[in-house]
Amino acid sequence: MVRAKSTPWIQTWSRPLMAIIAGLGVIDTSYITYEKLTNQSSGICQAGCSTVLNSPYAEIFGQPLALFGLAAYLVIFGLAIAPLISGGTTIEGSNRPTAIASGTQLPLFLTAAAMTLFSGYLMYLLSSEIHAVCYFCIASAIFSTSLLILSIVGFAWESLGQLIFPGLITSMVTIVAVLGLYAPAQAFDPNMTLIKDRSGNVFFGVGTPSGTAETQLANHLKSTGATMYGAYWCPHCCEQKQLFGQSAMKDLNYVECAADGPNQQSDVCRQVVPEVEKLTGEKFGFPTWKINGQYYPGRKPLTELAQLSGYKGPQDFQNPFQSCQMP
Q: Which family does this protein fall into (predicted)?
């Protein structure tokens, strides 16, 4: 009597392990998505995490990048557990996979491969462009790589060669998509005012002009002691400056809160944070305005700043809201 070949433990446990890892990925990306959407730090997301979330690379099509990662982990989770909740992964009395188990193997591999490539590119951006350490991002890269490994060694493939062609196609599509999504839209206009960190790395460019109304409002805010607290990497801070325009933005009382920002005053910001949170009941975020002794979180239309500060000059503000240009 021929004894049936036993199933390797990694193939027995690959799907539960993938489901667990995908679940951890869901938790990880859900938290990052929440931080990005609310623009409020819970305290778990430290400096490096905040820098990443406020970088030009944290959004795709106007939505948080982490939201797409969350969707990918949910897909992996669903594919991993589908056979487990439908009667098992193998046909009873044999080691052959069921139809649903067999049908989900390749999608699991391709999804994990795409996620790993995307995560690898994001790790490159962290080290070469953003210059920050984000433990949540690193964890997601580890999860993706682990899922890819399990999708290869955890299934009884007839031949690993059958993964080469679809794997290459998926890799090429992923690489083209990543480069397309993060390719510079256009070169900076040399006349733009560039927003940089202390090392000279460019994060944004402001090219809007300052009209009479913008200039007079900026002068009024300065003369009345109004202060804007922000950070060079904050897109909403750049958008606020862009509403004033290149010339008027330089007249604002601006406090740079990022420790690696130009002319940083991070000590001043640390002293202000508890006062802001006590008075507003909200987490301190960028930008935050202090006008007539009151704190106002968030980017504000110039008409609102005029009203809050008691400005009575011309209000034919000419710059509509638009996202800041990124390198």
A: Belongs to the VKOR family.
Residue 20 shares a structural domain with residue 157: yes
**CA pair distance 121, 126, nearest whole angstrom:** 9
- What is 240-279 written as a DSSP string? HHHHH-TTGGGGS-EEE--TTSTTB-HHHHHHHHHHHHHH
Q: Indicate whether 327 belongs to any domain.
A: no
What is the residue range of 133's domain? Answer: 9-182
Domain tally for the chain?
A: 2
Q: Is pLDDT at 7 greater than 80 in this prediction?
A: no
For residues 229 and 163, membership in a common domain is answered with no
Alpha-carbon gap, residue 87 to 317, rounded angstroms: 65
pLDDT band per the 50, 70, 90 thresholds, residue 255 = very high
| Same structural domain, 199 and 178 | no
What letters, b where the CB count within 10 A reaches 16 and e where it falls short, cover 24-48?
A: bbbebbbbbbebbeebebeeebeeb
Q: What is the CATH number of the domain that holds 271?
A: 3.40.30.10
Looking at the structure, tell me whether residues 106 and 234 fall in a common domain: no
Put simply, whether the predicted model's pTM sits higher than 0.90 gets the answer no
For residue 64, CA distances in Å to 31, 125, 176, 277, 302 come to 11, 16, 20, 25, 26
Query: Is the distance from CB of 134 to CB of 233 less than 8 angstroms?
Result: no
Query: Which token pair is 34?
Result: 């929440």
Instruction: Note the pLDDT tens digit of each residue in 35-53.
Output: 878 765 555 666 567 777 7
CATH number at residue 23: 1.20.1440.130
Burial zone of 176 (CB within 10 Å; 0-12 exposed, 13-18 middle, 19+ buried) = exposed
Which residue type is seen at 95? Answer: N
